[in-house]
Design goal:
The complex is a heterodimer.
Chain A (H helix, E strand, L loop, with lengths): L4 H7 L5 H16 L5 E3 L2 E4 L4 H16 L8 E3 L9 H4 L3 H16 L23 E3 L2 H9 L10 H10 L1 E3 L13 E6 L7 H12 L4 E4 L5 H14 L6 E2 L6 H5 L6 E6 H11 L9 E9 L1 H11 L10 E6 L1 H6 L1 H7 L4 E4 L14 E4 L2 H6 L9 E4 L2 H8 L2
Parallel strand pairs in A: 2-3, 2-4, 6-7, 6-9, 7-8, 10-11, 10-13, 11-12, 13-14
Antiparallel strand pairs in A: 1-5
Chain B lengths: L18 E4 L1 E4 L2 E8 L6 H4 L23 E4 L8 H10 L6 E4 L4 H10 L3 E3 L11 E5 L4 E5 L6
Parallel strand pairs in B: 3-4, 4-5, 5-6
Antiparallel strand pairs in B: 1-8, 2-6, 3-7, 7-8
Classes of the chains: A alpha/beta, B alpha/beta.
Chain lengths: 397, 153
């Protein structure tokens, strides 16, 4: 890998240990993946925030790093394990809250913005077409690459932090034109019906793993692509996809491509996936959780409008509506409406919060959440998967 | 390299010798242990309990088996990018694998292995390795050496 004189100096420790370790990790990854050099990044987005996911070992590591390192480009944080203000109402215990605060302090000390969202692109951190990034939350990565045409690999939490500190990342993978071409075609025939984006994403992620899918036959809106990409990144490791006539690189994605593997998906296949995502009896739900990824302003307002004129069901499940602090601030009226039925939470979600201590059955409309919630070493939930309308019927009448 | 009989050929005696598989260095260091082979891509987050080192993903075909002290063999990583931290936690908690072998390593598993100083070699045909085999992962040379375990053929 070719390094500039300045980069070499950082690597041998002339800029201090706080930059040396970061450069060492970036160069190691660059060498592994055949990068020719480092590329400057516009921003970093850091996963590895919830105490539930990184644990005591992760907390200590971050504290050590925060004593010696600072970030050098705009850096945003992923959701944490709790709403910073309403954690007690969520059922999060004090010990967890203290650990969670320590993690946030460590990131803050390094100069990371405590955005605490998986949708930074909805709150003013909108990358431009062609920007190089080091983002790490898998749904944000998928959105930035596919919908915005920015360029980022699926960074691991620590490698995104290393990139944030150096302000650069190794130029490999999706930073290069040749790796952004479609490697498989997905023909969707939903029979003219509304497409269940979560089920479609779960199916394609499972079938195609790490490919770059090119979709035909769908016309998703941005919020639909948020859901689709999140599900593919959770059931598989998809970081970039294209949609014919919709996403910015779709045309370029097929140039020079021959004999691509094609899969066909019809309504029957989608229904099967949808049924498979539900593993519990719908009338015994503890928690209805919306907002994985974090909801957009339009989605929050849509939920409020569906609830208007209705009443909370007596003995109904809890309702969590998860979004970013910024969207909640902009959606004041809608929030008031939703709060008649449950909580509009910020900074966190049903996946990274300690939901396993709060509920045993959770209902979600997210393909991504439906992948993570049942995992035993993580959320241990029985899952009910349904549309927004079906889920709101559980809490409102 | 000498030719080797295909897997499952129980008659061919030369298969008793160590099987040397050249690959690519991801994380340096050398370690030996008993192989635990997973049949499916792994999300460390949710797929392995960092407190116990036990596999919690049924699709791997190794549900509830421990990765502690083993050479963990799986095709590739998937799912959450927080997986790097889970690998690091396993190591700090003393529940981690001594080495990892992949068909294709992606950034998340690579980062975790480098951070946790767990030797990792990829570009290995993992179909040649079985659970119970004694495996040496040489992360410095980029090589994996397999000795058939008693449970093998």
């Amino acid at each position: 890998m070719h390094l500039s004189k300045e980069e070499e100096a950082i690597l041998v420790g002339e800029a201090g240990e706080g930059r040396r370790w970061a450069m060492e990790l970036l160069v190691a990854l660059g060498d592994i993946f055949g990068a020719e050099d480092l590329v400057p990044i516009r921003s970093a987005q850091l996963a590895g925030v919830s105490y539930k996911t990184i644990g005591e070992a992760g907390l200590r590591w971050l504290q050590d790093v925060s004593r010696i390192s600072v970030v050098s480009v705009p850096s945003m944080l992923n959701p944490t394990g709790m709403d910073s203000h309403r954690w007690e109402e969520m059922g999060v215990d004090r010990a967890f809250a203290q650990k969670q605060r320590s993690i946030l302090r460590a990131y803050n000390r390094m100069g990371v913005e405590l955005t605490c969202t998986c949708t930074p692109y909805l709150i003013g951190h909108l990358p431009a077409f062609g920007d190089h990034l080091a983002w790490s939350e898998s749904s944000a990565v998928c959105y930035a690459n596919s919908v915005l045409g920015a360029r980022t690999n699926r960074e691991g939490g620590p490698s995104a932090l290393a990139a944030a500190i150096i302000g650069k990342t190794a130029r490999y993978g999706l930073h290069l034109d040749e790796n952004r071409k479609a490697t498989a075609v997905v023909e969707v025939d939903a029979g003219g019906k509304h497409v269940d984006w979560g089920s479609l994403g779960v199916l394609v992620g499972k079938e195609l793993g790490t490919s770059v899918p090119y979709f035909k036959g769908i016309a998703p809106m941005p919020d639909d692509m948020k859901a689709l990409g999140a599900a593919m990144a959770a059931s598989g490791a998809i970081a970039l996809y294209h949609v014919e006539d919709v996403t910015p690189e779709a045309q370029a994605a097929l140039e020079g491509a021959t004999h691509l593997q094609t899969i066909h998906i019809d309504q029957t296949a989608l229904s099967e996936v949808r049924e498979g995502l539900t593993g519990a009896i719908p009338d015994r739900v503890d928690l209805v959780a919306l907002g994985c990824p974090h909801l957009s302003l339009e989605e929050v307002e849509d939920i409020a409008s569906r609830l208007r004129g209705k009443d909370p069901r007596p003995d109904g499940p809890q309702l969590w509506v998860c979004t970013s602090r910024e969207v909640k601030k902009r959606a004041k009226e809608a929030v008031k409406e939703i709060e008649r039925f449950g909580k509009v939470l910020t900074d966190t979600c049903m996946v990274v919060a300690p939901v396993e201590r709060i509920a045993t059955t959770t209902a979600t409309n997210s393909g991504k959440a439906a992948c993570y919630l049942p995992m035993q070493a993580f959320c241990s939930q029985r899952v009910v998967y349904g549309s927004t309308a079906e889920l709101l019927d559980l809490v409102a009448e | 390299m000498r030719a080797l009989p295909p897997d499952g050929d129980s008659i061919a005696a030369p298969a008793r010798g160590p099987l040397r598989l050249p690959g690519r260095t991801i994380s340096r260091g050398v370690a030996t242990g008993e192989a635990l082979v997973l049949e499916a891509p792994l999300s460390f987050l949710g797929g392995i309990d960092p407190a116990t080192g036990r596999v919690k993903d049924r699709a791997t075909g190794a549900f509830n088996k421990t990765v502690r002290g083993r050479v963990l063999v799986f095709p590739t990583g998937k799912g959450s990018t927080v997986g790097s931290y889970v690998i690091y936690q396993l190591k700090v908690n003393g529940k981690g694998p001594v080495a990892i072998v992949n068909e294709t390593t992606e950034t998340i598993v690579a980062t975790g292995a480098i951070l946790a100083k767990i030797p990792l070699v990829d570009r290995i045909d993992i179909g040649r390795i079985r659970t119970g085999d004694r495996v040496t992962v040489d992360g410095d040379a980029g090589e994996v050496v397999v000795v058939r375990g008693k449970g093998g053929d």
